[in-house]
Write a structure and sequence with these properties.
The structure is a single chain. The protein is mostly helical. It has one domain. Strands 1-2 form a two-stranded antiparallel ribbon. A hairpin with a 4-residue loop joins β1 and β2. Keywords: Membrane, Transmembrane, Transmembrane helix. It holds the Pfam family DUF2189. This is DUF2189 domain-containing protein.
């Protein structure tokens, strides 16, 4: 019987075609204004979003949590272990000076671990039943971009640690410093942390979602995220404030609150991405 030597290549082509069709926003047949041109990268255009939209995203996220409670709790426990480790670090160091750098470090590495929850939300969007295995595979859907983004966040974290060490030099030398003596240290530390978090937020609020779904390069994803934040600044300030408040609540509950908080924030981030970043076709999903 003759052997069909093209069978393997046909299977590969079929697999590639299926993968391409799975990504609803493949960058083919895009309109001329789909990209906003930048000097260093292309940026996918965005929609204007109402200032109250973040509250709607949270409401939709709660609904996603109830639709996939077991997976949400599994990821919630994984997330809670990170801030729990930071709390243990603070107690072991027996000093409050590590609280600020540890909190910023958590905010920097958090987006990397949210990819699995983005996949859960994406599966719900497509009407599928999300699974833990499928969500883990999402971390390798765009490995170059996603791990490159992880390295970028790691570099930002190292920069913050160096800045924190320099700011520590301003800490008063007295055994029990007064509030007046602490003003310079607290002011500079707060401003430096706020500036770094604002930069990281602008570059990362939509970057993981874009790279996971659309398989674009990291520069396009980062440029798109920055462009969306710039064009919806007031809305993004509200969203960033809600994230900050949620994280503070999580730490106030000794990291137990993160079991619920982190899945909800991740699902809300997916809805924020859907509402903000333009697509070639309507998604029929909020």
């Amino acid at each position: 019987m003759p052997v069909d030597h093209t069978a393997g290549s046909k299977d590969v082509k079929d697999t590639e075609q299926d993968a391409k069709s799975e990504f609803s926003d493949a960058l083919e047949d895009r309109p001329d204004d789909y990209f906003v041109q930048r000097k260093f990268a292309k940026a996918i255009d965005c929609h204007p979003v109402a200032q109250s939209a973040p509250f709607h995203w949270l409401a939709l996220a709660v609904n996603d949590f109830t639709r996939a409670p077991l997976l949400s709790l599994i990821y919630g426990v994984i997330f809670s272990l990170i801030p729990a480790a930071l709390i243990v670090l603070v107690l072991a160091a027996d000093t409050h000076l590590v609280i600020l750098p540890a909190s910023v470090a958590f905010a920097l590495i958090g987006p990397v671990f949210a990819t699995g929850l983005y996949d859960v939300a994406w599966e719900l969007e497509k009407g599928h039943t999300p699974t833990f295995r499928h969500s883990l595979k999402s971390m390798f859907r765009n490995p170059v971009g996603e791990w490159g983004f992880a390295i970028l966040l790691m570099l930002m974290m190292l920069v913050w640690m160096r800045i924190a060490a320099l700011i520590y030099a301003l800490y008063p030398t007295t055994l029990t410093p007064s509030l007046e003596e602490m003003v310079g240290f607290l002011t500079l530390g707060t401003l430096a942390g706020a500036v770094l978090l604002a930069v990281v937020f602008a570059f990362s609020v939509f970057t993981p979602q874009i790279m996971m779904e659309r398989r674009v390069d990291i520069m396009t994803a980062v440029a798109t995220s920055y462009n969306a934040v710039r064009k919806n600044l007031s809305t993004m300030v509200v969203w960033a404030a809600l994230i900050l408040i949620s994280v503070l609540i999580g730490f106030a509950t000794s990291a137990v609150g993160f079991i619920v908080i982190m899945p909800i924030l991740s699902y809300a981030s997916w809805h924020a991405y859907i509402a903000t970043i333009k697509t070639t076709r309507p998604r029929k999903y909020e």
